[in-house]
């Protein structure tokens, strides 16, 4: 019995480290810019230099995610949406995958003790602050849109300092554990060489 108990941490999936973004008053101009950012309705798309590179990225990321998300159609839709929303916000899609791994363990309906929701563990106050009242934070694209927009906002506030931005995202600014987990998940589990990817896709994508 003791041996079984000792083995339980190895048998169970790794626990997510969801936190909670903290409410901070925003200026009217920042609120307007964030509202515009979450309101675009263009369909998700990949922005590699060629269809072959898009297919290669999808195939590789899909292979890595197979055990976490067994349904292939759902997995591919998820990956396309991650890629589009991350690139649109000027984020590395692999970084966003690392963040989702740590925040929710890829659980669509995850809810933290603080009430953060979905894949990217977005706090509901963001809907009232910058979104539409009917925004569903468990909807895949809505959740990823808000999450990527919020992380981009924190990166802008922190002048590109990823560790401080991640700390803000998790509500643990000043503590190194969470940023270290996310960067470790990104680099060790999701890194991917993209030599032909357009440099412009690393910046914000214009609204369509």
State mean pLDDT (0 to 100 scale). Answer: 82
Number of self-contained structural domains = 1
Q: Kindly state the number of beta strands.
A: 0
Give the helix tally: 9
Helix content: 40-55%
Which secondary structure elements does this structure contain, and how are they paired or packed?
Layout: H1 2-11, H2 28-39, H3 51-65, H4 72-88, H5 93-104, H6 125-130, H7 140-157, H8 162-170, H9 177-190
Description of the structure:
54% of the residues lie in helices and 0% in strands. The chain has helices at residues 2-11, 28-39, 51-65, 72-88, 93-104, 125-130, 140-157, 162-170, 177-190. Residues 1-15 and 195-208 have low confidence and may be disordered. It is mainly alpha-helical. The chain has a single domain, classed as Lysozyme (Orthogonal Bundle).
Defining traits:
globular, 0% strand, disordered C terminus, mainly alpha, Lysozyme
Could you provide a short overview of the structure?
The chain has helices spanning about 1-10, 30-40, 50-65, 70-90, 95-105, 125-130, 140-155, 160-170, 175-190. It has about 210 residues and is mostly helical.
